[in-house]
Amino acid sequence: MRIIVLRLLALSTLVTLLIFFWNSTLLKPFKLFVVFLHEISHAAATILTGGELASISIKWDESGATYAASGKGIFFIIAIAGYIGSIIWGSMMLRASLTGRWVRTVSLVVGLTVIFFGFFPEREISSLSERLLKYIISGVWGLTLIFTAFVFPRINHIILFFLGGLTSLYSLYDLDDFIHGDLMKTDAGILARYLLGDSRMAIALAWCIAIFISAIAIYIFFRQIKTAIAHQETEPTPEPVNLVEWQAQNPDVEITAEMLDWLKSQSGKKL
Fold first, then answer.
1. Residues 207 and 242 placed together within one structural domain of the fold
2. Number of domains in the chain
3. Cα separation, 167 vs 171, whole angstroms
4. Are residues 243 and 222 part of one domain?
5. 66 has which bridge partners?
6. Cβ(114)–Cβ(145) under 8 Å?
7. Which end of the chain is more exposed for a tag (fewer CB within 10 A), N or C?
């Protein structure tokens, strides 16, 4: 029960931070990491669908872009991969931190992936400042995840939980961009324009895509909460001790009052 309460408290704290301190400077390094994971998902989709990755760019204002060097690759998959990838990365990190399973493995996978794409050879597309920011974000976060996974596992557990929660809800952050920014410059808008061109229906489709992805993110996030409630780390129940058989097997052992109490606690039988 104590574990459940702690997990729910941690999740409540995370949601509170996201709601009330989203624009805080303290969250900037975390949000830049989340943006970079989003762009990594585009980059991975580009490579996996036969395209050629030119560069990944992130900016201090928390915007990002992924560039392909040719027209190869499946654009629809590449465009939607940012949202889907963020949900998958976030869910993987959050689930590992909540259940306590595969924590080190997940940290290594995420850390090495971030470093690999952060220092991926690129063409001269992004500016020097953007490249430096990318190197810093990928290098610092990648090494932090790997180092803490082996040296400071408890700290690693907390980091994984926080990054997982932020990444899982990235699409909600993007939804805020739809309201206060230019809808058609977001991934949902780009995808809608790709499917419908400059039609007026493209705006409506962009909103549908945005709301649908956000709904999936919220659903998966609450599934993680359910996991936190349902998953309890229980110790294996000891097998009952038969006192008569135990005494017969140990005739020279004197049973003290303390030992008798212990044997009774281990036995499922009333004496």
1. no
2. 2
3. 8
4. no
5. 56
6. yes
7. N
Statement to judge: residues 264 and 183 lie in one domain: no
Q: How far is Cα 67 from Cα 202, in angstroms, rounded to an integer?
A: 23
148, 256: one domain: no
Give tens-digit pLDDT for 210-267.
888 888 888 887 777 676 666 554 444 555 556 666 667 666 666 666 666 666 665 5
Chain segment 28-62, per-residue pLDDT in tens: 888 899 999 999 999 999 999 988 888 888 888 88
Helices and strands per DSSP (H, E), number in the chain: 11, 2
Q: Are 220 and 167 in contact (CB under 8 A)?
A: no
pTM for the structure as a whole: 0.76
Residues 136 and 242 in one domain: no
Question: Are the beta carbons of 205 and 192 closer than 8 angstroms?
Answer: yes
236 three-state secondary structure: coil
Beta strands in the chain (DSSP E): 53-58, 64-68
Mean pLDDT of 199-218: 84
**154 lies in the same domain as 247:** no
138 and 255 together in one domain: no
Residue 21: what residue type? F
Whose structure tokens read 């230019």? 182
Contact 159, 97 (CB under 8 A): no
List b or e across 230-240, with b for residues whose CB sees 16 or more CB atoms inside 10 angstroms. Answer: ebeeeeeeeee
Cβ contact 57:120 at 8 Å: no
Same domain, 152 and 246: no
Domain span at residue 185 reads: 2-230
Angle at 141 between CA 177 and CA 220, to 5 degrees: 50
27-58 burial code (b ≥16 CB/10 A, e <16): beebbbbbbbbbbbbbbbbbeebebebbbbbb
Percent of the chain predicted with pLDDT > 70: 69
